[in-house]
Amino acid sequence: MHAALVAEAGRLEYRQVADPSPPAGWVVVELRAAALNRRDLAVIAGRYPEFPLPLIPGSDGAGILRDNGDEVVILPSLGWGTGADAPAPGWRILGGPEDGTWAELVAVPAENVYPKPSHLSWFEAAAFPLAGLTAWRALFTRGGLRAGETVLVLGAGSGVSTFLVQLAHRAGARVLVTSSADAKIARAVELGAERGIRYDEDDWAAELQGEVDLCIDSVGATWPDALRTLRPGGRLVVFGATRASTVELPIRHVYWNQLSILGTTMGSRTDFEGLLHSIGHRDWLPAIDSVHPLEEASSATERLAGGEQFGKVVLAVS
Fold first, then answer.
1. Residue 201 burial by CB count (10 A; 0-12/13-18/19+): exposed, middle or buried?
2. 3-state secondary structure of 188
């Protein structure tokens, strides 16, 4: 089969490799499309030195189940276990350390394939698993979102943020976003956001102070401002640290206002099934930024790394 793989840290190659040999309980999917996540950029850059090389990146994929020809999407959360609160020891994400979806074939546990929503194209089906799952768990399992609440999504335009806006809007929430680009705010409004705030303007958080029930943050450096936007009893759910791995917080503000800070990453089979049920409506489609051939995976990673995309960057496999 052909694959885009990391031969050594910092170098992505497109070449022919051996077909996967699935262990007992695993299946092979003939991929039609895959998608990119920021995690893939870290895998390519060598930020996971424990992952063996060469390695095929990619957590998202949709294709044909080789055993019976079924059209499927792949749940990229491997070995989560049965706990709802957190994954079991040994939990991992497809695309490192196991080979992922940037290839013509991928081997995954049989329990990790689900029927492809029939109204989605291959590109659309490949776009939603990791980012959609992350958004679903952040909003509902961890964030406890209820209809009528106000949700603030920090950083409009990323794959996860587009799903956050769509899912929260569908759940009956009032959705606000932040961005440094008016065009991305306008696109977020098209997906269901009420309005957006420019975070590159002075003291943007003051405009929303005490207005937000649930804030979703993947930035890290924005925690202090995010907490200021919360009403008493509000929740901050965090799933990333794209701009800072440490931050100073106003402790008294947190406990006097009964605020909650909740961490989340990816999600369980139950979360994924909830997501599939939610997106089963034929009027729902993921936001796709661009589609690139598998052999041009390097240019696709450049598109994602540049930060100008809105929605998911997708690979056409076959």
1. exposed
2. helix
Query: Could you tell me the pLDDT band of residue 280, with boundaries at 50, 70 and 90?
Result: confident
Distance CA 177, CA 162 (A): 10
Evaluate whether residue 286 is within a structural domain: yes
Length of the chain: 318
The structure tokens listed for 254 are 């947190």
Same-domain check for residues 97 and 148: no
Residues of the domain holding 123: 2-128+279-316
The identity of residue 240, as a single letter, is G
User: Which candidate, 200, 193, 154, places its Cα nearest to that of 175?
Assistant: 193
Q: In this prediction, what percent of the chain has a pLDDT beyond 90?
A: 91
What is the structure's pLDDT at 244?
A: 81
Q: Please, which pLDDT band fits residue 289 given cuts at 50, 70 and 90? A: very high
The partner residues of 73 in beta bridges, in order of sequence, read 62, 114
Domain count across the chain? 2
Q: Residue 21 pLDDT more than 90?
A: yes
Domain assignment of residue 271, yes or no: no
Question: What amino acid occupies position 213?
Answer: D
My answer on whether 198 and 83 are in the same domain is no
* Sign of the alpha-carbon torsion through 22, 32, 68, 276: positive
Q: Which distant-in-sequence residues (6+ apart) come within 8 Å of 208 by Cβ?
A: 152, 176, 197, 228, 229
pTM of the model: 0.96
